[in-house]
Design goal:
This protein is mainly α and about 325 residues long. It has one domain. The chain is about 75% helix and about 0% strand. The protein is built from 15 helices and no strands. The longest helix is centred in the middle third of the chain and has 27 residues. Belongs to the EamA transporter family.
């Protein structure tokens, strides 16, 4: 009994690591003075650079994709690049709390998509957990939503970024059934970065001339929220359903808002602070008592030898 429970705890721990990692993304973006399309482009290209030492190991799989897989990977990459462009852009117009709280709509969209395309079911505990977390997320942003001006545009960009990442997540769920995390992430990150590079070329945004501090932030974005966030979640897609993985976004406003309060001086009301614990409670119910989450978690002993957790990303 204890042996069966041990592997699921490992997945839950990795899940929490991923939530913490992605929460640093908004802080690094705020610290950077570069255009958001440049930040996102170098974030992804540097991630691929870190992954290069393992390319030889996966060389056969990297170049043996079917035409359908290539098409899905291309669209998934474009969706991810669009997500970064829109969401990072929203951080320049509205607060971290508002921008991240809108992203909490992602699990609802992913759950609907999973039901329509993959016939993935949910249970009562998952719905209750999602509801609690969503209500808490709204409370975090309640004191920060604006009805007009730049903040409203920022909210709209965050919403569109949420739609884009939901599409990316659903395509990733399908592709990860047949591809290793390394191959999927390598090509998706490369395509997303290249789509952003084309955007920068069309808009004559410079590729060079950035201070060493900016390059340091690009690298931090590549390592912390991308490798230990997006890469980790894409790896988990094979063993946990897409709705459960996308639930991680509900924990992000809590940690991001606290980080913004400490590091950026953004105010956080007592209501928002209390709502953070409400969100965490909802996430805990979702991953602890959601049978669909548990049902798709596999034991460490069942993992294929070519797919070690995290090792492929570091």
């Amino acid at each position: 009994m204890n042996q069966a429970h041990k592997p699921s705890f490992s997945f839950e721990l990795l899940y929490i690591v991923g939530i913490i990692a992605i929460s640093f993304s908004s802080i690094f973006v705020r610290w950077s003075e570069a255009e958001v399309s440049v930040i996102a482009m170098y974030r992804l290209y540097l991630t691929n650079l870190v992954m290069l030492p393992l390319v030889w190991k996966y060389r056969t799989e990297l170049f043996s994709l079917t035409r359908k897989q290539w098409m899905l990977i291309i669209w998934s990459g474009i969706a991810l690049g669009l997500h970064f462009l829109l969401w990072m852009g929203s951080l320049r117009l509205t607060t971290v709390a508002s921008s991240t709280v809108i992203m909490t709509l992602e699990p609802i969209l992913v759950m609907l998509g999973s039901f329509l395309f993959f016939r993935t079911g949910t249970n009562r505990a998952m719905l209750i957990g999602m509801g609690l977390a969503f209500v808490g997320s709204l409370a975090i942003g309640a004191g920060d939503f604006h009805a007009s001006g730049q903040a409203l545009l920022g909210d709209a960009l965050s919403f569109l970024g949420m739609v884009a990442v939901s599409i990316h997540m659903l395509m990733g769920k399908h592709l990860r059934e047949h591809l290793s995390a390394f191959v999927y992430n390598f090509w998706v990150f490369a395509i997303a970065a290249t789509s952003l590079a084309l955007y920068n070329m069309v808009n004559t945004i410079p590729f060079t001339g950035y201070a060493p501090r900016e390059w340091g932030l690009f690298l931090l974005l590549a390592i912390v929220p991308t490798l230990f966030g997006h890469y980790l979640f894409n790896w988990l897609l094979k063993y946990i359903n897409a709705t459960a993985v996308s639930m991680a976004v509900l924990g992000e406003p809590v940690i991001s808002s606290l980080l913004a309060w400490v590091l950026l001086g953004e105010k956080l009301s007592a209501l928002q602070f209390g709502a953070g614990f409400f969100i965490l409670f909802g996430v805990w119910i979702f991953i602890r008592y959601g049978t669909d989450f548990k049902k798709q978690v596999v034991h460490q002993s069942e993992l294929p030898a070519s797919e070690p957790p995290l090792k492929t990303g570091s």
